[in-house]
Design a protein that fits this description.
The protein is mainly alpha-helical. It contains 11 helices and no strands.
Amino acid sequence: MSNQPGSSTAAEPDQPDTTDPVDDAAPAAGEGHPAGAPGAPVLALLAVGWLAAMLWSTREAITSAAAGLTAISLSAFALPGVISAALVAGAAVALAVTELLARRSDRATLRFMAAIGTGLLVGLGTAVAINLTYPDNATTNTIAGTSAAAAIIGGALAGARSAAPVGAVVTAALGTLVFVVAFSRARDPLFDVFGSDGSQASLVSAAKWVSRTESLVAGVVAGLLAFGYLTWARRRATRRDPATPAPRWPAYLLAGAGPGLLLLLAEVIIRIGGRTLLDLAGALSEADAVAQTSLGTSRVDNGIWVLFVGALTALIAFGRTLGPAPRDDEEPETAEEASER
């Protein structure tokens, strides 16, 4: 029976449907892979080099007879720097390995397992280097074991699926550690700036302000480095694939706060894995016990300052890149209006 005009039947039942089926597995329009971590091999080399420098300086301090301090005290003072360097080195090397692996496979489980395995290798290498080069005393095994644990934890942190924020955290953390060591050369002049006249009260007050200044500037450095790295990673990824999604403000917040979080995590590792060493150093004298307690409190305060100042700095820098939001009543600009303007 033929279709009459006005009939509700629009086509013959046996007419083929020309509508394309929807592929649920295909990515939606405008979606792309997250930005990777550019420069990961360079970060790994820099982080391993920094770890080697920390291990060498600690070994020289422990074996130096001119220091006038026991090996236990020197080991306790040097332990935080070694642990922080091992944590960052484990994360940096694991990030470089997982970025190479991501070119062949995008499986999150495989990436995470490779990151942990890489951190384990970095930790074992660090422990072996310490046991072979450090003096054979009661502190060597503690430093080696705690450093190995820090490297493994750092490697696990690098197993996150979003590589760009991890690279930003590693870059900012490494820059923060370098800044803290460089800042130590300006401590003595700053004591005079903050009113130290040699008395006990003025020394305590000046030390408090010097510590706050160091933490504040370190947080600013961390936030700016994190923002700069994420911006660089986004631009590189966009040039390769315009559909790559741009990092949103939580990524900048996490990247800016990351160095402070790593410092606090390093403090947890120190207080758990290095508890024996810290107790031995505190038991030497009452002054050593007070010094260890004061240094621990100062490290926690520094980590908190770097966390919040770094996060705020990264967010402010990200906010300055945003343009004004268009109003609903605004009409899009035509080509003629753009040419006249």
